[in-house]
Amino acid sequence: MNAREKLGKYRPLTYYQLMEVTLRELLVEKGLTSEAEVKAEVEAMRARTPERGARVVARAWIDPEYRKRLLQDGTRACEELGLEIPQLKLVVVENTRDTHNVIVCTLCSCYPRVLLGIPPDWYKSRNYRSRMVREPRKVLSEFGLRLPRNISVRVHDSTADMRYLVLPMRPAGTEGWSEQRLAKLVNRNSMIGVALPDVPAAKKKPKSAKTRAR
Amino acid sequence: MAEAKYSVGQKVRVMESYPVGHVRTPFYIRGHSGTIERICGSFPNPEELAQMRDGLPERPLYRVRFRQKEVWPDYRGTDADVIEVEIFQHWLEAA
Amino acid sequence: MKALTRRMHHDMGGLPAGRVRPTEHEYAEWERRVDALSMIMGRQGVTVDQRRKNIELLPPEEYDRMAYYEKWVISLAQSLVEQGIVSSEEIARKMVEVERRG
Question: Can you list the domains of chain B with their CATH numbers?
Answer without folding.
Answer: 11-94 (2.30.30.50)
